[in-house]
Prior knowledge:
The protein is an alpha+beta fold.
Amino acid sequence: xxxxYRMADSLTQACIFLDLDPARVLRASxxxxxxxxxxxxxxxxxxxxxxxxAIAAEADRADTALExxxxxxxxxxxxxVLAFSCADTVFVGWERLAVxxxxxxxxxxxxxxxxxxxxxxxxxxxxxxxxxxxxxxxEMVYLTELVRTHTGRKITPLDIETQNDWKDATKIVxxxxxxxxxxxxxxxxxxxxxxxxxxxxxxxxxxxxxEPQFTRQLQEQSNGTTMVSxxxxxxxxxxxGGCTTADQIAKRLNVSKRSLQxxxxxxxxxxxxxxxxxxxxxxxxxLRDSDLSVPExxxxxxxxxxxxxxxxxxxxxxxxxGSFRTDAGPNLH
Length: 333
């Protein structure tokens, strides 16, 4: 089954950051004008590259990659970046980036090192596609700014290797602090001591909570996208913000409420069934594998008050959150 990627939010955000007309980008990408309003707006890998090329062409300026990378490096936060930010060191974060990058893009990363340096290499996972100059510049700026932001240090890469000739990229080269070398591959190289710097954002507790969710998303990505998996993903991401209703979920998925309910019925499920399943699974995970308080867990699961969570949890398990945590025993890493 072809891997699909959610691109509606990314396309919209890029158009906002670069002040582009979404309709022109869609047309240049070969997508219908109402694509952003359609329910089925996941795309295959080749379309991801067409969208990227259309954005670069519509922006048509030398600093497109720099402008877009700096905006994305400071939000929105996506699974690979959150995985990186929770790591103890830069290199451990790179290893996590390499694992979870495929959730959001048809790209592969490989982290490697020797005694003197650490390397992060990028490649595409779609046959017949390649990293163009604008995408390569974006990734190098983006990754460098991530390292600088999460270490609190203005680190200069030891080296940058590229597949493309970076023409008119003076601002980007000045930002990076190193002149790229065209070697036929895309690699960001740091000094070994910089790769071992601790991240100021590191959080083992948060990572223990996020890792199972990201692993599930990665598995769903490789298995293909169903409406059930899409709704589960929305619930995992949206419950802390109170996303619990069919209307809210439909809005996040850019589908009508009727289409959402019909697709779930066809797949033998419903919004309420999935809401209960996700809340039940996540509540047990939080109680067993974190030291979050019951009120904190109640909030993360989108309950209005703790008593509602107590009643729901008892309905799922036949016991109270406190008794479940006691019976589960200490399982914190």
